[in-house]
Structure formats: structure tokens, C-alpha cells
Amino acid sequence: MYDLIIIGGGPAGLTAGLYAARARLNTILLEKFAPGGQILTTDWVENYPGFPDGISGFELIDRMKNQAEKFGLNIESQEVTRLDLDGDIKTIHTNKGKLETLAIVLATGAFPQKLGVEGEGLLTGKGVSYCATCDGPFYRDQEVAVIGGGDTAVEEALFLTRFASKVHLIHRRDKLRATQLLQERAMASEKIHIIWDTVCSRITGATGVEGLDLRNVKTGETSLLPVQGAFIFIGYSPNNQLVDGLLKTDDYGFVVTDENMQTSVPGVFAGGDIRSKQLRQVSTAVGEGAAATFAAEKHIEDLKAHRETFG
Ligand code: NAP
């Protein structure tokens, strides 16, 4: 039986693992494929302290993984299919079998939201993308559209200017949600063209993206924007399928915890993008991963002491 099982290998999970390995807890980190998470789709991270010139998402994760493994963290590729959270001993069912543990840190993150318009599903991977780092280089000297007005949309639009001849940033309001610094950079870019107060109602094309049907929400005017790529960055939804109905969540499905990362079930802790909170960043995820393991360690100690006393 494990002391602690960490589910998810992004910044929160890897930090939870680093702290668990250093605390000498009998721990395993489970990840469906390989460690990484959302950060792997981020080209350049500029606001993680300690890297004044920035660092690539890939390198940052690689360093976190190496650091955790250096202290003995065991990372395995296993897909978790079901959780039994009743009682002191939790059971984790995976595609490779069944594991028992005294505590769980849930760090399964979030995934990009879909726009939900005609053509989106059909053309995903054929011009519709949720990852500029992955697909941007395919659009050298072509025109692309980015949908959204938050930090992700603006940051990725700026990244796409390295390749595309023009980047149309389509936002449903007349003010961007993104932080001021990113807004200033977008406004200063000659390649970025912001289309305000506008939504996309359809993505056209048979075998690849050919254009977007647009509608101005103030005037009702419709138009067709010819582009070869459509990048959608309209926020994230939690990867909460495993704990749906088992843990308390907020209205959007993000897991609610106290300030020690304790969820509504004793022995189950959560950190990173899966958590209900305001700011989803690498810097917040790592702090939560550390706090989750610290709280889990106390829980494990208490459980072991109780079992020694009462059997
Ligand atoms: P977000 O902040 O929730 O922004 C989502 C954007 O998409 C908003 O502009 C929203 O419009 C728009 N939107 C939502 N649903 C839409 C729909 N159905 N149709 C059209 N537009 C829609 O999401 P995010 O940009 O992915 O950021 C998520 C979190 O990560 C935030 O906390 C953000 O600060 C953080 N982040 C930080 C950095 C950084 O600091 N470098 C980089 C990336 C992300 P409205 O504005 O009208 O609501």
C-alpha cells in the first residue's frame, strides 16, 4: 500500500511529488501519457520567478521532472479509470490494475474549452487548433484567426505573428480581458488585427479551414473572414471526470478545497488547475502542489498513529 498517490504530472503534480519524495513518503505519480500538462502547449513562460529571460514550457517541465526523480519520485504511465474514496484506505483503479493508498493528491488540470460552432469538430486538427505552439509553424505566411480576449488568446496571437502573415484576434467585447502588458504588445504588433464585438458562428471548409462566419454583436452585421487557421482560446474546463459526484466542486466543476488543499473528502487533496480559484498559473500550481503534500503528510501520520494505537 502506498502512503500517497499523485494523479497528474503537470507543475502541481510534479511539485507534490518532489515534496513527497523528500519527505520519504511511499509515493507514486500516475500520468496518462508523460508528465507535462497544459504548460507543454505554452511556448515561452515569462512570469515564473527565477527565469528572468523566460524558459520554454517543455524545458521547465523537464527540469521539474528531473528534480523530483533525483529525490526518488516514481512516475508511471497509467490511466486512472475510477476512484473509491470511502474509508481510510483509498482505491485507485487504473488500466493496469488496482492500487491502494492512504492519501491522494489530485492534480489532473484542465483542458481547453470548445467554441461549440459548426465546423469546429470536423476541422479540428485540419486548421482548427487549441495549441499555437504545436500548430503555429504550419501557418508560415498565411492568415490565421485567434478567438478569445484573455491572456492565453493574446499571448498565443503574439506567438503566431512569428509565422503567420496576419493574425486576426476576434473578441466578443470591446475590451480585452488580458493583462495590460500583453494588451500593449498586441496593440503594438503590426501583424495583429483586432476585430472587436464579434463572435464566430461557423468555421467553413471541407478538408481544411477556409474561413470564419463572423457576426458583430452590436450591429448584427455578418461577414466572412478568409483564414487558413483558427486558434481557439476561450478558457479552460476542469479534468474532473474521475471525481464527478465524489468531491465538492464549484458551479464550473472545479474542485473546492480549503487553504491546505483539503477537498471535501478527508485524505484527498487537490492542487493546480483542477482547483477552484482565481489565478491559474505555474507559480500558483507549484505552491499548491507543495501545500497539498504537506497536508497529506500530516493526514498520513495521523492515520498511521491511529492505526498503531487502535489496530
Ligand atoms: P480566460 O481568462 O477565462 O479568458 C477567456 C476569454 O475567452 C475571455 O476573453 C472571454 O471573453 C472569451 N470567451 C469565453 N467564452 C467565449 C465564447 N463562447 N465565445 C467567444 N469568446 C469567449 O481564459 P485564458 O485566457 O485561457 O486564461 C485562463 C487563466 O490562465 C487566467 O487566469 C489567465 O490569467 C491565466 N493565464 C496567464 C498567462 C500569463 O500570465 N502569461 C497566460 C495564459 C493564461 P470575455 O472577456 O468577454 O469574458
pLDDT average, as an integer?
95
CATH superfamily membership of the largest domain, which one? FAD/NAD(P)-binding domain
**In terms of structural class, how would the helical and strand content be classed?**
alpha/beta
What percent of residues adopt helix (DSSP H or I)? 25-40%
The H-and-E topology, N to C, reads as EHEEEHEEEEEEHEHEHEEEEEEEH
| CATH fold name of the largest domain | FAD/NAD(P)-binding domain
Describe, in plain words, how this protein is organized in 3D.
This protein has 311 residues and is α/β, with parallel strands linked by helices. The protein folds into two domains: 2-111 and 236-310, FAD/NAD(P)-binding domain (3-Layer(bba) Sandwich); 114-232, FAD/NAD(P)-binding domain. Helix content is 25%, strand content 28%. It contains six helices and 19 strands. Strands 1, 2, 5, 6, 7, 8 and 19 form a seven-stranded mixed sheet that branches. A five-stranded parallel sheet has the order 10-17-11-12-13. Strands 14-15-16 form a three-stranded antiparallel sheet, with no helix packed on it. Strand 14 (198-204) and strand 15 (211-216) form a beta hairpin. Helix 1 (11-22) runs parallel beside helix 2 (57-70), helix 1 (11-22) crosses helix 6 (282-310) and helix 4 (151-160) runs parallel beside helix 5 (180-188). The longest helix has 29 residues, at 282-310. The radius of gyration is 22 Å and the shape is elongated. The model has no long low-confidence stretch (mean pLDDT 95). The structure holds NADP nicotinamide-adenine-dinucleotide phosphate. NADP nicotinamide-adenine-dinucleotide phosphate (NAP) binds next to helix 4. NADP nicotinamide-adenine-dinucleotide phosphate is lined by residues 47, 115, 147-153, 155, 172-173, 177, 199, 233-236, 279-281.
